[in-house]
Design goal:
Elements: H1 2-33, H2 35-38, H3 41-64, H4 70-96, H5 103-128, H6 135-160, H7 169-191, H8 198-223, H9 228-253, H10 272-283, H11 289-325, H12 335-352, E1 356-363, H13 366-373, H14 375-391, E2 398-403, E3 406-412, H15 416-437, E4 445-452, H16 459-475, E5 481-483, H17 490-497
Length: 500
């Protein structure tokens, strides 16, 4: 016990040291990049590139640690590598004060960073999403799309487009894509009722710092703030350091966690996406074709979500209705169906003279089967018994599991002698199925048959007569069919009632 606690303490201490080292490294790199504000942007861009390369290696190490999210960390590593290489090219341009590398290529590579990073976030969501289905993905797309539309169309486009020195649409895409990634991670964290791995929050914080840096870069360029690009790269250094810390946590957590436990998302998470879709449609204007098309796409996505929700609710109601009338183990009907059906069938038999027969049966010495072969075989035997009985009955006959190994069959329009023939057919089918499930056990079933009118005058009497005939079959040696009515003395009835 002491050794285990000591090992756990060392792991915890090592984890805290690793996190502290990552944060300290990020802060140190940011401080090294700070002189770039006064000197040049090249040093800040170079420091960012170095830190991002370290983040790529840390993500690669997290992927090599195994676990269910190995592919996600490989994608994150690829994204950080692309980011590092692109910042290095930007540093070359800044140092030469010329476009040694075309600016269009650098923009393309910066945008390319979002492809594997976004794919990694999708894999993280897929593994850790709180719901079993994918309805949360549609909800997240609605929220993220609305946030992106508002960030682009309502804020950035209105605030920056057309102003002197305003950047183009490509530069506007960076904060929008950051916002989408942050919205997806926030949607995952906020909807989960249980604790998620700490590295998820670390990634979200890294994306948030990147978002702030991209927005600050745009605003600084618009207003001509000196050194705004170097400040942005210093923020990228901090973001890369947060990626290092998140990857270190993920490597320590790899292995035992394969999937986050599914929970019921909070109630508000089903309403917010629809509200977002309405807001998105309300703010767009036909005069902005791109934003208007995105608003229509979000409206279509909301309609699809409502359609899927309606379909899912219909399926759940149908499953609930089946569960209310079905035995979960054998798929036979349950006592609820018997209570709702018996009186009607009996009343119809009395009113029209149409006969109604009942067959009560159970598995002989079922307890011995459980004790000898185990409860799994016993359950399989009950499933096979119900299936074999159902296969020997007509479509309108009702098979009910009363409990344990006891079953009842109602046969509308069948007389007592005819029901005895049906019971014999069912007995042979069950014997054959029992030999398959538990070979060598000699599984048999005993049957009791009664009919109304004839053997009984009321529904309760019909079931009681069938039950008495069942005990008579057991007393006669088991594995046979007996037909009521059966008259017993008090002592003999008590003795038969205790027979297995």
């Amino acid at each position: 016990m002491t050794s285990t606690r000591a090992q756990a303490g060392r792991r915890l201490l090592a984890g805290r040291r690793g996190a502290a080292a990552a944060v300290a490294l990020a802060v140190g790199a940011a401080l090294l990049a700070a002189p770039g504000v006064a000197w040049s942007a090249a040093g800040a861009a170079g420091a960012a590139s170095a830190m991002e390369a370290l983040a790529a290696l840390a993500c690669l190490a997290a992927a090599r640690g195994g676990g269910a999210l190995r592919r996600a960390w490989l994608l994150f590593a690829l994204g950080q590598a692309i980011w590092s290489a692109t910042d290095l090219l930007a540093a070359v341009n800044a140092a030469r004060a010329a476009e040694v590398v075309p600016a269009g290529l650098i923009d393309l590579l910066w945008l390319l960073f979002y492809v594997p990073t976004t794919a990694g976030i999708v894999l993280v969501y897929r593994r850790l999403r709180p719901e079993r289905g994918w309805q949360g993905v549609l909800d997240g797309a609605l929220v993220a799309g609305t946030v992106g539309l508002l960030a682009w169309g309502v804020y950035l486009d209105d605030a920056l487009a057309g102003a002197p020195g305003a950047p183009g649409d490509v530069a506007l895409m960076y904060p929008v894509l950051d916002t989408l990634g942050l919205a997806a991670l926030a949607w995952l964290v906020l909807r989960h009722r249980r604790a998620l791995p700490g590295w998820v929050g670390g990634i979200a914080l890294a994306v948030a710092v990147t978002l702030v840096a991209d927005v600050a870069y745009l605003i600084g360029g618009l207003h001509g703030v000196a050194g705004h690009d170097a400040l942005a790269w210093a923020a990228y250094v901090v973001a890369a350091g947060l990626w290092v810390e998140a990857a270190a946590r993920a490597r320590r957590d790899a292995g035992p966690r394969t999937r986050a436990p599914h929970t019921t998302p909070p109630a508000w998470s089903g309403t917010v996406p629809l509200v977002c879709a309405v807001a998105a449609v309300a703010v767009v204007s036909p005069g902005r074709p791109a934003e208007f098309a995105l608003g229509l796409a979000l409206a279509a996505l909301a309609a699809l979500r409502m359609l899927l929700t309606s379909r899912l609710h219909g399926q759940l109601i149908a499953e609930r209705d089946v569960l209310l009338v079905t035995d979960p183990l054998t798929s036979a009907h349950n006592r609820r169906v018997l209570a709702a059906t018996l009186d009607g069938l009996a009343a119809d038999a009395v009113r029209t003279g149409r006969p109604l027969a009942a067959i009560a049966f159970d598995v002989d010495r079922f307890k011995e089967v459980n004790d000898r072969f185990g409860h799994a075989v016993g359950d399989a035997l009950l499933v096979g018994t119900a299936a074999a009985a159902q296969s020997a009955l007509r479509e309108g006959d009702l098979l009910v599991r009363l409990g344990g190994d006891e079953f009842l069959v109602l046969l509308p329009g069948v007389t007592g002698p005819e029901a005895a023939v049906v019971a014999e057919r069912v007995r042979r089918a069950i014997d054959a199925a029992g030999n398959v499930v538990a070979p060598g056990a000699g599984v048999t079933c005993s049957f009791g048959v009664a009919a109304l009118p004839g053997d009984a005058d009321r529904p309760d009497d019909l079931l009681r007569r069938a039950d008495e005939a069942l005990y008579a079959a057991k007393a006669g040696g088991r594995g046979r069919v007996a037909r009521g009515p059966v008259r017993r003395t008090g002592g003999e009835a008590r003795r038969l009632a205790t027979a297995p």
